[in-house]
Design goal:
mainly alpha; about 220 residues
């Protein structure tokens, strides 16, 4: 029975990692497409495009995670809708924090910018992760078939995971800024999204398996 639970937990973890990585790849692909559109089209409504990007990423992430958790969720449409709303909200909060960071950096010298950049990125990732984690904590309480008393840990797990994931996204694997959407930029966006999504999915997936093991009945096939 113990080995069976370990196998089931590993299978759930793998599905969760792939779901999160896929959603992240789509999100970074949408960002790359957004950069190409805004560089070629005049008088484009940036806010509408950003809203569409957030919705696309949220829907894809919600459906992908639903495939990983389909045996535990009794209202699948609710999970997708709630995840989409949470992703859009996290996206908007991230944009607001990015704008505040840009304003703050304008008052700093070049040397100070580097010292502040990494903590700012970690803070930004933590804010996005906290929003998504809290929303999914509510989803665990509302839509998951089994009761999870310790689900509050999910917020902290997402905060840490997204801080690390966003930090990786800003490292050398990130895609380069360009005036158009090329194969090179598309591949870089996919690599960045896959790397960040894998880190976030692997980290939160460990907590997910742990929570499911603590719940009544453990992990199902």
């Amino acid at each position: 029975m113990h080995k069976q639970n370990q196998h089931q937990g590993l299978f759930l973890w793998e599905k969760w990692v792939m779901a999160t990585a896929f959603g992240s790849v789509v999100g970074f692909g949408a960002i790359a497409a957004f950069n190409a559109i805004t560089s070629r089209v005049e008088n484009v409504n940036i806010y509408i495009i950003l809203l569409v990007v957030g919705i696309v990423e949220g829907v894809v992430l919600g459906f992908s995670q639903l495939l990983a958790l389909r045996r535990y969720i009794h209202k699948p449409i609710g999970w997708v809708i709630f995840t989409t709303i949470a992703a859009v909200l996290a996206w908007l909060i991230g944009l607001a924090l990015s704008y505040l960071m840009a304003v703050a950096f304008s008052f700093l010298g070049d040397g100070m910018k580097f010292l502040v950049l990494l903590p700012a990125i970690v803070l930004l990732g933590g804010g996005v992760g906290a929003v998504l984690g809290f929303a999914q904590w509510l989803l665990f309480q509302a839509y998951v078939r089994i009761y999870i008393r310790q689900a509050g840990w999910w917020v902290g797990a997402n905060t840490l995971a997204w801080s690390l994931g966003l930090l990786i996204a800003f490292m050398d694997i990130g895609f380069e800024q360009s005036d158009g959407l090329s194969i090179h930029n598309a591949l870089n966006a996919a690599v960045t999204g896959a790397a960040m999504g894998t880190v976030v999915g692997a980290s939160t997936g460990i907590f997910l398996v742990w929570l499911m093991n603590l719940s009544r009945g453990g992990i199902e096939n």
